[in-house]
Amino acid sequence: MAASSNATQEFVPIKEVRDGIVILKDGGMRAILLCSSLNFSLKSDDERNAILLQFQDFLNSLDFSVEILVQSRKLDIRPYLALLEEQETKQTNNLLKIQVREYIQFVKKFTEDANIMTKHFFIVIPYSPAIISAGRAGSFITKLGVGASGSQSKTSGNGSFDENRSQLEERMSVVEQGLVRTGIRVARLGTEEVIELFYKAFNPGETEKPIKMK
């Protein structure tokens, strides 16, 4: 087991997650922003043109690379169904109990037939101080922005974490301001959120495990 664990860790170029920032083994840093979506089809032609122009201005204002990640997963409706079933057992009115049971069956059938998916949108912002050399990063890790620049870099080791974080936060501010102008809400991921994001990426089958009922 230990050998297998070590072999897996060798393919993950993450050293630690500190203050919401992913620190790579080569010294590079990555920040992740969670972004809201826009229903483009409900906008008028003028609104669409304004959004496109603002987004174009945002992209033109960047002097560094960013990565846009869309995470699509099947909606796990089981916690909601468990809550409904708990409420059903608490009902003393037989008519309400029947209505709750019918609603549970409706939700189950609807989600099975429709195959509802949830989507989350992220912007990954890289910062690699004092780059000396570069090599190719793994394609799977690149999907989570760990290789957003398309390479793994070695650093000189100079500069403190706070100094490098300050540089990364300046980039984050530029991205945040640009996206807000287009009508997109953004939120910086904290340490727990980042860890959860990577955990789910490397363990996609976790949502399929049965829920332990109390």
From TrEMBL:
It comes from the Bacteria. Residues 21-200 form the TraC-like domain. This is TraC-like domain-containing protein.
